[in-house]
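Sorry, explain these tokens?

***
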Amino acid sequence: MRTATKNNIRLDYPEEVGFCFNPCLIALSGDNLLSMVVSITDSEKTLSVEFDAFSKGIGCDVREFVQSLFDTSYTELVDYSVECESSPLGKSVQMHVDAYVLDERQKSKAAEFDFSVFYVWGALSIGEAYNKSRTLTCWRGFPFSVSMYSRGDGAVLLSNDGVASRTIEIGGEGVYDVVLPTLTAQKYFTLSDMSGIISQATFDKTFGLTFQNSTGAVDERVHVNISDDADEGVYLRWINRHGFVCYWLFKQGSQQYQVSNGGEFLRDNMQNYDVSFGYQGAAGRRQMYTRQDILPVCAPLVDEDTWAFLLDVTTSPIVDMFCGYNANNEPIWRSVTIQPTSYTKAARTPLQDFAITLILGEIPTQKL
């Protein structure tokens, strides 16, 4: 964590990059502390909260306030018509801290602190590397984007099959989605850092829970293999724990349909319509049914890294299923959820199936 001192009051606050589902800690220490007021803003929304002192210090975790600055709807998660745009899954948050002390039985302001942290919609575990070099897979004909964090202005180099093609401009700090609507490469393409802006850091501070920006030594940041051997299946999009948008084409299993009683059973023995019109109303009827569709999918024989990559879909708050393109050639996505269960990763097995079950949501039915 970073530190600052004013008027013998010390502030401990997060590093340059943090995650809104990890603890976002702020601490004040000094003599005669009474309270502190923390104001949090992203230039659109401002939140303020006051914390009272305990002994000679004040500590707080403001992660819920940071989370509230993000728009959780994400109806337009990625604009596939733009080559590179800033993602809503990362934003710069400015914080202002006022420290109050008890001076001659009067509450007075003793110090002010201002700092900013770039927060990502996600959560990291101890020892995980954020924004590291990685290998992905895309399927020709399906919408695809590459997410990456940039710490400033610069550019990335796009190479097709190992041959430099063009540069893509990055405008300032943020999480960016790079979209390639037309894949001109035959086997693979790469995105390489040209300006030292695609920094990598390892989340290794147990109590800091944030990390400093540092420049990685690897120039090639993302290697994307292109697959042409599949044109059908279940194509999913989700947000992983690093705040990146991920994709995978799963093999489809046998779809199941669960129909259950959703209303009362009605029996009418007091009317004569069952006799007059030949309608057996006296036998009764159900007032309402509900139907839920369940679809098992599988990624067969994936390696250890891919299995770990796919595991994030099981805990993602947003999972979308691709349903084709509309008349304007824009992708259509349908929100789905993952059925909770246990996942077993076999030891000393180089290749293993990864299977999940999709819950497609309740199907509207006729109700009386």
The helical segments are 63-67, 273-276, 304-311. The first helix runs from residue 63 to 67. The first strand starts at residue 2 and ends at 6.
